[in-house]
């Protein structure tokens, strides 16, 4: 299971994972990626910590021969949407009509990215309802 953006927790060390070995990781929402094991450390609680870096087999050719290389998107859907930062909303009310203006920044631009916004309000019974 993925525990955060950079760590994956498994119940046992996958077969073939040893220092300097190359191994693949495939998750349902991600394309398979190759990693090179840098270190394997046993923790005090009997678990293991594996430090690895992403392995790109054609990297040597890229460096030595100046080959062109277009990295593959990380997800099966093509691209990872950029994180939303500095989200602000402004609510304008006029004659029983409401308009919400949302603004945000993204750390990078992704060509063709679009965002869908959902506005939920608290209903009289305390639940949320979609507006």
Automatic annotation (TrEMBL):
This is Host specificity protein J. Residues 73-131 form the Tip attachment protein J Fn3-1 domain. The lineage of its organism: Bacteria, Pseudomonadati, Pseudomonadota, Gammaproteobacteria, Enterobacterales. InterPro entries: FN3-1_GpJ, Viral_Tip_Attach_Protein. It comes from the Bacteria. Pfam families: Ig_J. It comes from Salmonella enterica.
């Amino acid at each position: 299971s993925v525990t955060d953006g950079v760590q994956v927790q498994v119940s046992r060390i996958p077969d073939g994972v040893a220092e300097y070995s190359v191994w693949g990781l495939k998750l349902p929402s991600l394309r398979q990626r190759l990693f090179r094991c840098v270190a394997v450390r046993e923790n005090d609680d009997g678990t293991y910590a594996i430090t690895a870096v992403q392995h790109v087999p054609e990297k040597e050719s890229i460096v030595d021969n100046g080959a062109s290389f277009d990295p593959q998107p990380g997800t099966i859907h093509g691209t990872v949407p950029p994180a939303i930062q500095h989200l602000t909303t402004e609510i304008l009310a006029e004659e029983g009509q409401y308009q919400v203006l949302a603004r945000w920044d993204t750390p990078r631009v992704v060509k063709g990215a679009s965002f869908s916004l959902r506005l939920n309000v608290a209903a009289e019974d305390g639940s949320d309802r979609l507006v």
